[in-house]
Amino acid sequence: MALLQGKTGLVIGVANDHSIGWGIAQALHREGANLALTYRRSGRERRVAPLAERIESRLVAQCDVCDDTQVAALMDQIRSVYGSLDMLIYGPAAALPDDLHGPYIDTSRAGFLHAVESSVYSLNTVIRAALDRALLNPGASVLALTYHGARQVVEHYNVMGVAKAALEASVRYLASDLGPHAIRVNAISPGPIRTLSASGISGFRSKHRHFAALAPLGRTASIDDVGQAAVWLCSEWASAVTGEVIYVDAGLHHCSAGPAPSLPA
Fold it and tell me: Which of 39, 82, 90, 147 is catalytic?
């Protein structure tokens, strides 16, 4: 029997077929999970709806996780279509483009607050909305996407590095809060992957081809690699794992030359 047969999940923040969230969705689906997908921006439905069809999803919806009304509506849809959740995959991350250039100290106040709300606090909002509706089953797994820029300075990552550091701390505190409910909270830290969000990082494309030579495994990770790790974290095989950040980057974060970032999307 597939590892996730009969389980239900929500993957928040899929942009296209290069998204890390899509890599996770495919892997969970292969192991028997029934999944709902969301996208953030109007117009992305034309890219995400065909992906939802490929995994036989019964729900694909637009949701800006910074909008409480949209989050509440999404959770009501989840209850109506699926009844409950065993997995919640959280991929949103956003920063103002101007704050990803120049020195971090020049980050605008508005940009700082936007990055933290979009990339960190919205996870609280989503989980709280699910808990208010008793959607998360005992044994459920919440999985966030982070990046090594949370722990090491990475050129042009700037305020996103600070936001991801806050996200990793939030994962630990949420794991403590939700542990008594038998709900686990973890994060995956992928290496540099060519996603739509990563294209907004200055110099990413030119640096990406050098990363494989730096990594101990001689390659970079793919969205499929991340998906396989997500299956483990969402399955009973990881039933005693919570509050952790799992690196899936072919060992690249161990190298002295820090990799450029991939913003999960």
Answer: 147
